[in-house]
C-alpha cells in the first residue's frame, strides 16, 4: 500500500503527501499575537515552523472553515490564493470565492494522480462545539481521502462530536490514518463545552475509526486550547493505544 507523509507546520496546518499529490490543511502562517474575532480575540502563542515559501507547490488545500483566524489567518488567506484548488464548506466558497470549491457533507470529488488514477476527497460532517452551537460557531467540514491501493485518511477539522465520528466510521471506515484536531478548545462564545475533541475523545475517536495511526493537529500554539501533547499522550496510554499515536514536533514529518 502507498505510504503517506505528513509534515506538521503548526496549529491546524500540515502538508499531507499521498499518491503523488501534496495537500495543505488549514493554512495559518501569521506571527504570535492577539487576533480579533468579532468582539473577542484569540491569542496565538507560537508561530509556524515553516513559512509559506517553505511549503512549496500544493495540489489542493483542505480548508475545514474560514471564519476563525486560528484556522485561516491573514498570511494563510494570501497563500490559499496561490493554490490551484481549495476544498471547503459552501459558506467558505460564498465568502472567499476562487479557488475555493464547496463540498457539501458526503459529497465527493476526484483529484487526478500524477501516475494515473484519482484520489477521492469526500467531505464529511463536523460540529465545532456541542449540539446547538452551529449558529454561533459556523459551518465546518472534515475530509476523507481514499483511492485504489491507497490508505484511507480522515482529516477531522474542528470537530467535537463523537456521534459524527461514529457516522463517519460507519459510512467511510475503517480508517487507516486519522488526522485529528484536538486540544479541547474553549472560548467565551461557548463557555460550557469544548469546541474541539478532548484528548480522551481523540483516543476514543481512534478506537471508533479503527485507525492504525493518529496524527494530532491543532492542540497547541493558541491560548484557548486547554489540553496539549502531554494530555494526548496520557489519554492514548490509558486507552491502550499508545502505539497508534504520532505526536509530531513542529516542522517534523512522519511516513506511515
UniProtKB/TrEMBL annotation:
Pfam families: Lactamase_B_2
Metallo-beta-lactamase domain span: 22-219
Keyword terms: Hydrolase
Keyword Transcription in annotation: no
InterPro entries on file: Metallo-B-lactamas, RibonucZ/Hydroxyglut_hydro, UPF0173_UPF0282_UlaG_hydrolase
Protein name in the entry: MBL fold metallo-hydrolase
Lineage of source species: Bacteria, Bacillati, Actinomycetota, Actinomycetes, Kitasatosporales
Amino acid at each position: 500500500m502507498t505510504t503517506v507523509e505528513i509534515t506538521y507546520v503548526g496549529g491546524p496546518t500540515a502538508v499531507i503527501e499521498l499518491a503523488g499529490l501534496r495537500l495543505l490543511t488549514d493554512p495559518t502562517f501569521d506571527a504570535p499575537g492577539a487576533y480579533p474575532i468579532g468582539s473577542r480575540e484569540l491569542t496565538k502563542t507560537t508561530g509556524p515552523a515553516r513559512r509559506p515559501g517553505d511549503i512549496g507547490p500544493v495540489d489542493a488545500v483542505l480548508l475545514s472553515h474560514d471564519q476563525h483566524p486560528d484556522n485561516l489567518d491573514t498570511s494563510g488567506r494570501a497563500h490559499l490564493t496561490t493554490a490551484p484548488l481549495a476544498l471547503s464548506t459552501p459558506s467558505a466558497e460564498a465568502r472567499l470565492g476562487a479557488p475555493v470549491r464547496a463540498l457539501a457533507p458526503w459529497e465527493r470529488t476526484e483529484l487526478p494522480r500524477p501516475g494515473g488514477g484519482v484520489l477521492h476527497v469526500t467531505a464529511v460532517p463536523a460540529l465545532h462545539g456541542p449540539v446547538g452551537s452551529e449558529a454561533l460557531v459556523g459551518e465546518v467540514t472534515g475530509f476523507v481521502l481514499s483511492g485504489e491501493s491507497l490508505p484511507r485518511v480522515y482529516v477531522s477539522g474542528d470537530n467535537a462530536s463523537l456521534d459524527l465520528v461514529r457516522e463517519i466510521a460507519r459510512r467511510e471506515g475503517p480508517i487507516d490514518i486519522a488526522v485529528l484536531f484536538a486540544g479541547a478548545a474553549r472560548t467565551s462564545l461557548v463557555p460550557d463545552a469544548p469546541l474541539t475533541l478532548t484528548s480522551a475523545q481523540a483516543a476514543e475517536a481512534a478506537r471508533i475509526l479503527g485507525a492504525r495511526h493518529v496524527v494530532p493537529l491543532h492542540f497547541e500554539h493558541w491560548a484557548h486550547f486547554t489540553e496539549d501533547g502531554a494530555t494526548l499522550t496520557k489519554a492514548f496510554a490509558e486507552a491502550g493505544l499508545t502505539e497508534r499515536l504520532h505526536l509530531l514536533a513542529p516542522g517534523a514529518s512522519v511516513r506511515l
